[in-house]
Amino acid sequence: MMGLASYLIISTILFICGVIAILARKNIIAILLGLELILNASALNFVAYTRFLNNSIDGHIFSLFIIVIAAAEAAVALAIVLRFYQIRETVHIDDATQLQG
Amino acid sequence: MFDLTLFFISAVLTVIGAIMVITTKDLMHACIYLLASFLGMAGLYLTLGADFVAAIQLLVYVGGVVILMVFAVMLTGGPHAQKQNKFGMIKTALMGNIRTYTIGGLTAVVVLLMMVKLYISIFKNYTAGELPNYLPTVERIGKSLITDHVLAFEISSVLLLGALIGAAIIARPRKNRIN
What we know:
Helix content of chain B: over 70%
Low-confidence stretches of chain A: none
Number of domains of chain B: 3
Mean pLDDT of chain A: 86
CATH architecture of the largest domain in chain B: Up-down Bundle
CATH class of chain A: Mainly Alpha
Distance between the termini of chain B: 61 Å
Largest sheet of chain B: none
Order of helices and strands of chain A: HHH
Shape of chain A: elongated
Number of helices of chain A: 3
Radius of gyration of chain B: 21 Å
CATH class of the largest domain in chain B: Mainly Alpha
Largest sheet of chain A: none
Oligomer: heterodimer
Mean pLDDT of chain B: 83
Structural class of chain A: mainly alpha
CATH topology of chain A: Helix Hairpins
Shape of chain B: extended
Number of strands of chain B: 0
CATH architecture of chain A: Orthogonal Bundle
CATH superfamily of the largest domain in chain B: NADH-ubiquinone/plastoquinone oxidoreductase chain 6, subunit NuoJ
Number of helices of chain B: 6
CATH topology of the largest domain in chain B: Four Helix Bundle (Hemerythrin (Met), subunit A)
Helix content of chain A: over 70%
Distance between the termini of chain A: 54 Å
């Protein structure tokens, strides 16, 4: 029951939920939530393969670095969102048009 | 038996949380469902024997990232939130319209088929052999971090410093507003 397949199915569901959140939502913060889901799905895949295919510890290291990078990315992205809200008073993704040519 | 119970509870928590993140209407509720999903993910890490990764997941994601998200949601409210932008949409609109959900659903179907194509050989050919026992991983991770992966370890410290300074500089309030 707790085989490799069930973990892969769970991470696939998480990845698809993240993709739908990125494509379908209109709020910038909701898009960031989808991004976190995708990063978590990849980290779960690394740990699951470490358990079932080889017992090397490198998968855990990769998973830890994914978590570190996700934390840094969330901090910078939310700072950008707050700055954008201070300037334009909106968090709608269609309002971010200042850099359009 | 204990493992199986933990696995089921964690899997249900993770999947339900992830699905509710994309279907709930309130952004704060979406953050809380994301918290539930991350908690379930920590349980899944525990069933995989990755105790250190589970602890870091709890510390960084549940204690840090989600709280950051909740603060961002609270700071982007206010009296302007219900006004409409130039496209006639509410400025803190959360749900997309039917078109964006159609695009998202179609992309999800494509991604799902791609994943099935990738995983079908694994599902057919993989047979679970004798799984190793659960061992504490902290010592091995520590040794590996300062021997094999020491360059990535140091670079990630520089990355975190850069992210800290960058976030502080970007989010700093300024006097002159650009409109």
